[in-house]
Write a structure and sequence with these properties.
The complex is a heterodimer of chains A (about 625) and B (about 200). Chain A has about 625 residues and is of the alpha/beta class. Chain A contains 21 helices and 22 strands. In chain A, β13, α12 and β14 form a beta-alpha-beta unit. Classes of the chains: A alpha/beta (about 625), B alpha/beta (about 200). At the A-B interface, β8, α10, α13 and β20 of A face α1, β2, α2, β5 and α3 of B.
Chain lengths: ~625, ~200
């Protein structure tokens, strides 16, 4: 049985934040869950995926976050408790649905989880999604700890049903990827089937209906405001003349800072866990008792600006500060030491913490960026495209996309020139080719192609852009941990009742005039095929098919035999300077291959000018 | 009771997260408050994996610069990179077997000299325990057990408020039965290295 289905209320379990969130949702009786995977949220949906295989929970991996919200919204309007899970930028993709879903509302509880990523551990930006709550009018909850993330889920579903609106639940990486001890609660039974009641004058958002629905949304926001004023998740602690307003993980840093500075008896804390609508009256009451206040929040001055507004309305003139050059930055994440230091400075108390060791005389340490795995087929495809372009004398722009292959950015491959978001490789390639007057070559992964790449490709065909789109089809959503996508053969995972969408059929169906499928480990042939695609004036697509090596390993597929560098090696190091596969290492000024890492893809053996790289098993014969 | 802060750094694939979860599980067994966070964005792609463990009272799940009481590094250059986490009273435990970053192989950057690396750490912190944990893991029967060697060393120092028996019990919960014996040997080898260092 899945550990998150353990039916022993009161038992303590050490859980990852994302496991705690999934367990909280299960306790709340979530019956329908959907997602597009994205770090730091991915483990939540992975738990749902596993649980759905041994229970009546319905879970689906969706093509993108917008679809994930749509399927879950339909379940919720039929009275089924649903949850859509995504990373912060996923909410941008889903935003079109979310903004008007706020007008339509829900019947069954619906939670939309947005996992924000301050400091961008694995994201392209660090946008603060609290503003989506303000923009849409939807209520937002923000836990401060793993334990609270678990506890807040049932509350979120109840709140959603009480307001008849979806609830935005915002976490940050430090909640998702922290672990803590959670006390299991009772599990509410799942209601998996719902009933749709036709009500077009409230559910079909033509202008005349929406004008009415916006009025209803404002009424819901007013009710939510009252609930926020009384919510146990907006809590005031302590006594004293100084005030700190905070949210999320900042609360932890504040608590620890006050204890270490020895000023816990002089500071009152307002921790905001129900952050939209903000509890205006409670903020005013809180500030009324303070001489000065500090706002501790990661990201944008969301709380700070609201606190200043509410203070002004109450005629309060105390200093309220937060984001400032000498206080907190809008950049990256906070940490306990920063919060302690700024708190001490702002309130004028001594910070006696031991300083960090001085590392100014530590020599520069070589970087260790993540890199494409040994045997990764993307390395082969990048090499072949580069080689084909060089042989044709093409110098061009290489827009790329979001996935493992973004790592093609690094030398020596250096095959990434422009990236903004999921799917941007296809749209931007058209723009680059138009203004440069040249063939442009862009890269996109299989899952990303389904997610947001298709409209850009259709655009390229319609507007007849001169581009080659290379679809790196490794048969899985590799970067986020091998989640399925519509092109995956689910029978390989021993899962029935799934359809399968062929990327080649989609591409041909769109009307791309030149389509080639390559096997990237056949180097010479692939280069020839890519040269043809690059020579084609107009839109051409190259689909490079080879299973992700890590995924193949997880499926227990047979692995290739390792290679070694043989005696014919003349130390040209083409393998290292062109490929830099992590299986290579230098020892005694010669290249060697780590047989434990080598997957036997033979890419290096095929490009070695001396044919010096040979299967390792031939060692004994020579 | 005071809070003990431990940072563990490793290269993806070295088993940092298993070692961390064993310590957290051991704390749970002892009913000791524990919080843990990890940054493992692209661990499987050879990046750095960092985990923070906080034992005892408090709320934070992360450890800022200068806050770590103990730093354990599974790879020497990564230990040095994380040195800013330490204060002058910190204890540092490091493996001395390098894993060459590919940036060095393609001529970007020079791997730090191991002797100088140890001198630097020793000069700036209270105590350094440095040894070839990879070799001990290999002797114990599996080079992948380097995480248990370092865990054994850490637990033996007595710096954590956790009894070795609880760690052993947590290992039984977290490690597959057929791999338990080699991991126990590795753990014992690490403990012996700590005793040798103290002697």
């Amino acid at each position: 049985m899945h550990k998150l289905l353990t039916d022993r209320p009161g038992e303590k379990m050490l859980l990852l934040g994302n496991e705690a969130i999934a367990r909280g949702a299960i306790e709340a009786g979530v019956a329908f869950a959907s997602t597009y995977p994205g770090t730091p949220s991915s483990e939540i949906s992975f738990q749902f995926f596993q649980i759905s295989q041994e229970s009546d929970l319905h879970f689906e991996y969706c093509t993108n976050e917008k679809v994930a919200v749509e399927v879950a919204a339909a379940a919720a309007i039929c009275g089924v408790r649903s949850m859509a899970v995504m990373k912060h930028v996923g909410l941008n993709v889903a935003a079109d649905a979310v903004m008007t879903l706020a007008y339509v509302g829900v019947k069954g509880g619906m939670v939309i989880l947005t996992a924000d990523d301050p400091a961008m551990f694995s994201s392209q930006n660090e946008q603060d999604n609290r503003y989506y709550a303000k923009l849409s009018g939807l209520p937002m909850l923000e836990p401060s700890s793993v334990e609270e993330a678990h506890r807040i889920l049932p509350y979120a579903f109840e709140l959603s049903e009480e307001l008849a609106e979806p609830v935005l639940l915002r976490t940050t990486t430090r909640i998702n990827h922290s672990s803590g001890v959670v006390t299991l609660g009772a599990m509410r039974p799942r209601v998996t089937r719902g009933r749709f009641t036709k009500d077009p004058l409230n559910l079909v958002t033509v202008p005349a209906v929406s004008r009415k629905l916006h009025v209803k949304l404002l009424e819901h926001i007013a009710r939510a405001q009252a609930l926020s004023e009384a919510s146990p998740y907006n809590l005031v602690e302590g006594e004293g003349p100084w005030g700190i307003l905070c949210n999320g993980v900042s609360y932890n840093y504040v608590k620890d800072a006050l204890a270490e500075l020895g000023i816990a008896d002089r500071v009152r804390i307002l921790r905001v866990g129900f952050s939209h609508p903000l509890p205006a009256r409670r903020i005013q009451e809180f500030l009324r008792g303070c001489e000065k206040a500090l706002v501790v929040e990661e990201g944008e001055p969301y709380l700070e600006e609201a606190a200043k507004t509410h203070a002004q309305e109450a005629g309060l003139t105390l200093p309220i500060r937060g984001k400032a050059p000498e206080l907190f930055s809008r950049l990256y994440e906070l940490d306990p030491a920063t919060v302690r230091r700024v708190t001490a400075r702002y309130f004028g108390v001594a910070d006696r913490a031991r300083p960090a060791v001085d590392v100014s005389d530590v020599p520069p340490i070589p970087q260790r960026p993540p890199t494409l795995c040994a045997g990764c087929s993307h390395r082969a495809t990048f090499y072949e495209v580069r080689q084909a372009a060089e042989e044709l004398g093409i110098e061009t722009v290489y827009p790329t996309d979001i996935g493992c292959y973004t790592l093609g950015l690094l030398p020596p491959l250096s095959m990434a020139d422009y990236l903004i978001c999921m799917g941007s490789s296809t749209g931007t390639a058209g723009g680059f080719s138009q203004v440069s007057g040249r063939k442009v070559v862009s890269f996109i992964g299989d899952s990303t192609f389904f997610h947001a790449g298709i409209p850009g490709l259709i655009n390229a065909v319609f507007n007849n852009h001169n581009l080659t789109l290379v679809i790196l089809d490794n048969g899985t959503t590799a970067m986020t941990g091998h989640q399925p996508h519509p092109g995956v053969d689910m029978k390989q995972l021993k899962l029935e009742h799934y359809g399968r969408v062929s990327i080649e059929s989609v591409v041909r169906g769109i009307g791309v005039p030149h389509v080639t499928v390559i096997k990237p480990y056949r180097v010479k042939k692939s280069i020839e095929q890519i040269k043809e695609a690059l020579s084609f004036p107009g839109v051409s697509v190259v689909i490079s098919q080879e299973l992700c090596v890590l995924y193949a390993k997880s499926l227990k597929l047979p692995r290739g035999k390792p290679f070694r560098v043989g005696e014919k090696c003349k130390n040209h190091r083409v393998c290292m300077t062109r490929l830099a596969c992590p299986a290579f290492y230098v020892w005694n000024d010669r290249i060697h291959i780590d047989a434990n890492l080598c997957t036997g893809c033979s890419l290096c053996a095929q490009i070695c000018p001396e044919h010096a790289i040979v299967p390792a098993r031939e060692t004994a014969e020579k | 009771m005071k809070t003990t802060r431990l940072v563990i750094v490793a290269v993806g694939g070295q088993g940092n997260l298993l070692a961390s979860s064993i310590l957290a599980e051991a704390a749970l067994i002892e009913n000791l408050p524990v919080r843990m966070s990890e940054i493992h964005g692209m661990a499987q792609r050879g990046g750095v994996v960092e985990s923070a463990l906080l034992f005892g009272p408090g709320h934070s799940t992360v450890i800022a610069e200068g806050e770590a009481d103990i730093l354990v590094g599974f790879e020497p250059a990564e230990t040095l990179r994380a040195l800013g986490k330490c204060h002058r009273e910190s204890t540092v435990i490091t493996n001395l077997a390098p894993l060459m970053p590919f940036t060095v192989n393609i001529g970007q950057g020079v791997y730090p000299d191991l002797k100088r690396l140890q001198e630097l750490i020793r000069a700036k912190t209270a105590r350094l325990i440095a040894f070839n944990a990879t070799a001990l893991a290999r002797e114990a029967g599996n080079v992948l057990a380097v995480n248990m060697v370092l865990l054994g060393c850490l637990v033996e120092t007595g710096l954590l408020p956790i009894r070795p028996e609880s760690v052993q019990a947590a290992m039984e919960r977290k490690i597959k039965p057929d791999l338990l014996e080699v991991n126990r040997r590795a753990f014992a080898a690490g403990a012996a290295a700590a005793r040798q260092n103290a002697a």
